[in-house]
Amino acid sequence: MSILDIQHLSKSYGGANVLNDVSFTLQASESVGIIGDNGAGKSTLLKCLSGAIKPDTGNITFNGQPLELGNPQAIREAGIEMVYQDLALCRQQTVLTNLLLGREINTPWGTLNHAAMRKLGSQALAKLNTDIPLNAVVGDLSGGQQQAVAIARAMLGNPRLVILDEPTAALGVKESAKAIRFIQSLTAQHVAVIVVSHRLQDVIDTTSRILLMRQGQIAQMFVTNNLTAAELSGEISQ
Q1: Which domains does the chain possess?
Q2: pLDDT profile of the chain (238 residues), mean per 10
Q3: What are the strands, taking DSSP E only, across 159-206?
Q4: d(CA 52, CA 221)
Q5: Is the distance from CB of 164 to CB of 193 less than 8 angstroms?
Q6: How far apart are alpha carbons 72 and 78 in whole angstroms?
Q7: Do residues 62 and 15 lie in contact, with contact meaning Cβ atoms separated by under 8 Å?
Q8: Cβ atoms within 10 A of the Cβ of 154, count?
Q9: Residue 173 CB neighbour total at 10 angstroms
């Protein structure tokens, strides 16, 4: 059963077609990669999915219901969360503050319920099997740990789909391996995942199939089983 059904999305700026009749489906608990050169349309597609922009034509059905395109809040409420490349973390604040920013829990007297917030924060990190201290300052964490905080924050909304934009772009080999494990854990929790990245091996390691975009369209689809990064690179350069 598909959880996401994208039909005939198109978007143009000044007469230039950035997206051109894009359609694809995503199954529940499936992880799909989207790759392509700069200017292929990946960022515009993500913005349409997150509600940051409204496509000129087309529609998106999620979990059986049409999405209100161009409305980020409505799309989040529908169950779609996006983790941006810059992670959008407050690096001078603690892990707990970042996790619950905008989701603070109050006591009946209007003060912060610190015990309930710590419990919720610990549960969010436990889902990723990481023991990052809640009182740690985010700016003091490694890149992989910061990625985990961003993913854990997204998971607090109990999403059915998490979109990850270049999740390992700024990470070294060891930190990328940690981030890949965090991403792989999402589908184990019955969450669908879209991974957009230029790091082809990381896309292969975190997805079951990959969509190649070229000139605003989906040009090819690959099953990741037995696929190599060299093969993918060759397809992109064609």
Answers
A1: 2-236 (3.40.50.300)
A2: 93 90 94 92 93 94 94 94 88 94 85 90 88 94 89 89 89 85 89 93 94 94 91 84
A3: 161-165, 192-196
A4: 26
A5: yes
A6: 10
A7: no
A8: 22
A9: 7
